[in-house]
Amino acid sequence: MAVGTLALFYPVFLPMSAAAAVYAGHRALHVDWRMLLTQFLTGPGRTSRILLAFFLVLNWKSLPLAWTVRVFHSFIYHALRRSKTLPQRALFHYSVTSSRTSLLETDYNIHKSNSTYFADLDVSRSHLVTHLLAPGMPILGDNAKNKRVLDKEGNVVQGSFGIGLGAVFCSFRKEIGPLQGYEMWSRILSWDRKWLYLVTHFVVKGKVRPTAWDRKRMGPTRDRVQKADGSGETVDFGQYVIATAISKYVFKLGRFTVHPALVIEAAGLLPERPGEGWKGGETGTGTPEDLGDLVEDEQGQWDWKRVEVERRKGLQYAEHFAALDGTNSLFDGGEDGAIGSFPLG
């Protein structure tokens, strides 16, 4: 997701999409669809047309502009259907997105090509971030009025709000066959003073269900302690993980980097933290107090200590991922030579 995409979505892309839909509907009213369908199914060359249509249906997600449709669908879907309020504990809950491997995503090993995982990650992350954080984005986008983001001198930061993808890491464990269904389970892993880290698990479709949904009528659930069939032992959910990816996002107001805690707080998902708050301390993520007892109130809301425990737990993995940024310094421009320059790269 490029910086500025969400800043343009509501004032530009949403009205343009609505206008295009109205125009398409207007044109569709003047078409005899029954006649066209009859000619398509019975006219000369029908076998080739039907096979081509079948091929396009199976491979729709690999067609031109399909990625754009999938990503912007996530924006529109959550703009129209998101709950007005979410419990604070939803901050670390999973967003589940289903997909299926198209034939055009299959490589010469007859399974889903590793490169195609990243397009799916774009869609899964868009669902997660839009659903969780969209309410806070207009607040920060109108920072001149709301004064949520200040620079070191205490001045109100100006500029349009946007999100930038900084890096992605993906670890592959199992293959995904042609036309095989799978699910992407994405959630917030952690954050530091600059980056919001997300983790996505590619999971075998239909094998895992959450114990509850934050929204009603989202699908079946499971018992809190799920047992293996007949064995009486707790299920190892890791056995259903196909691949795991970690991504990091940066939030911007113009060219100014916005602390992730400000975005989460504006979305109403961070409880108030005493002392210097979520931006204090030497690390810029809060002072390292003893977390002590963890509290959850009757409404299922977490206190700040519970949130900080989850953030620190995820940061243990995110810090190793962030350290890989240092590998940029390994590039020496071929100081000792290079193998060669090859075509069709």
Automatic annotation (TrEMBL):
<keyword id="KW-0812">Transmembrane</keyword>
<comment type="similarity">
    <text>Belongs to the lcsJ thioesterase family.</text>
</comment>
<keyword id="KW-1133">Transmembrane helix</keyword>
<keyword id="KW-0472">Membrane</keyword>
<feature type="region of interest" description="Disordered">
    <location>
        <begin position="274"/>
        <end position="293"/>
    </location>
</feature>
<dbReference type="InterPro" id="IPR029069">
    <property type="entry name" value="HotDog_dom_sf"/>
</dbReference>
<dbReference type="InterPro" id="IPR051490">
    <property type="entry name" value="THEM6_lcsJ_thioesterase"/>
</dbReference>
<protein>
    <recommendedName>
        <fullName>Capsule polysaccharide biosynthesis protein</fullName>
    </recommendedName>
</protein>
<feature type="transmembrane region" description="Helical">
    <location>
        <begin position="48"/>
        <end position="72"/>
    </location>
</feature>
